[in-house]
Amino acid sequence: MKNLNLEKMYRDMWNELGETGSACKSDTKVYKKHRNLLSRYNLCPACYAASLRTATNISICFNCPIVWSGKKNVFITCSQTGSLYQRWNNARNYIANNKRKKLALKIANLPWKE
């Protein structure tokens, strides 16, 4: 497999979600291009990057390159209640499309740690 820039894929995916307001990562060009790879990792380039950093069967979340708290010394995962991802995910059904777009753009710009 050619060398993938997973950070760029992540940012492209979330920027597209921020532009379109789609509620599904699988609607993005990044997912459609890398479906076979991302479908095994929550449809997410960051989850795939975390899997590459995980040598054992521990949760890949501990190796996620995204700083979900926005602060490098505070660890939370995307799946924690109140995280930007959870707020975006919950916006699917009952929050206006503009709110989902704003959350996606915030997610696109979260720090990526090496």
Describe this structure in words.
The protein is an all-alpha fold and 114 residues long. The chain has one domain (6-108). The protein has helices at residues 6-20, 29-33, 35-38, 45-52, 84-94, 97-108. The model has no long low-confidence stretch (mean pLDDT 87).
Keywords:
single chain; 114 residues; mainly alpha; globular
Oligomer: single chain
End-to-end C-alpha gap: 21 Å
Largest sheet: none
Q: Topology as H/E string?
A: HHHHHH
**Which structural category do the helix and sheet elements fall into?**
mainly alpha
Tally of separate domains: 1
The tally of beta strands, per DSSP, is 0
Query: What percentage of amino acids are in beta strands?
Result: under 5%
The poorly predicted ranges are none
Rough outline: globular
